[in-house]
C-alpha cells in the first residue's frame, strides 16, 4: 500500500528551499536560550504528532521581535502554497526545527526564537534580518506525513534493487511523480531538479546516490 507516501516522495526530490539558515552564528549563551512556544489553537483530534524526519506542510509568518515588522510570509511565496519541509534535519533554522516538534495537523503556534537558534551574529541580509535578532513565527500546520527518506521510498525508486539510485531511476521517478500530481511545470524543471538532487545527495560524486547518502536522517536501516 502506498499510504501517504505520494506527497512525501515528491518532496524528497524537490528542493526544499525554505528559510534554510546559512552559517548559524551563536553566542556563548546559546545553552541558556530556548524556543518559547505558545499554542494558539489545538484541534480536538491531535494525531499524528510531528517528529524528526516527518514531512510537514505548513504556512507561517516571520516577524522581528524588536519592532514587530514582518520579514517573511509563506502565503505570498510559491503562489500561496503552504511550505513542505522535513522536520529536524536543518532544512529550516534550528529554532523552527525545535518549535514544530510534537505538533499536530490543524494546530497553530506562536513561537519566539532567540538569535542563537536563528541567524545568530550574522543575521540574514536577504530577509533583512539584522545581527542578533530574536524572531517570532506564527505557524499553522496542515499535514504530517511520513518522511521521504524511508526504506519504502528508497526501494520504490531503486528499480534494479542494487542499493543505489541512478540518474535514470530518479529521472523516471520524477516523471511518475510529476504525472501523478498533475501540476504544470516548465519543461526545464525536470532537469533542474534532477541536477539539484545529485548536487545535494551524491556526496562522493560517483553518479549514484547510495543508500547511506540517501538515508541521511538515520531513522531507518537499509
Notes on the structure:
The protein folds into two domains: 36-145, Roll (Chitinase A, domain 3); 151-210, Recoverin, domain 1, CATH 1.10.238.10. Strands 1, 2, 3, 4, 5 and 6 form a six-stranded antiparallel sheet that branches. A two-stranded antiparallel sheet has the order 7-8. It contains six helices and eight strands. The chain is of the alpha+beta class.
CATH architecture of the largest domain: Roll
Biggest β-sheet description:
6 strands, antiparallel
Mean pLDDT: 80
- Per DSSP, what share of the residues sits in E-state strands of 2 or more residues? 15-25%
* CATH topology assignment of the largest domain: Chitinase A, domain 3
- The level 1 CATH classification of the largest domain is Alpha Beta
**What is the count of helical runs?**
6
Helix and strand topology:
Blueprint: H1 5-12, E1 36-41, E2 55-64, E3 70-73, E4 83-86, H2 94-99, E5 108-113, E6 135-145, H3 151-157, E7 164-165, H4 167-181, H5 188-201, E8 209-210, H6 211-214
Antiparallel strand pairs: 1-5, 2-3, 2-4, 2-6, 5-6, 7-8
Helix pairs in contact: 1-4, 4-5
Spell out the key features of this protein.
single chain; alpha+beta; two-stranded antiparallel sheet; 222 residues; Chitinase A, domain 3; six-stranded antiparallel sheet; EC 5.2.1.8; PPIase_FKBP_dom; disordered N terminus; 24% helix; signal; Recoverin, domain 1
Short overview:
With 222 residues, the protein is of the alpha+beta class.
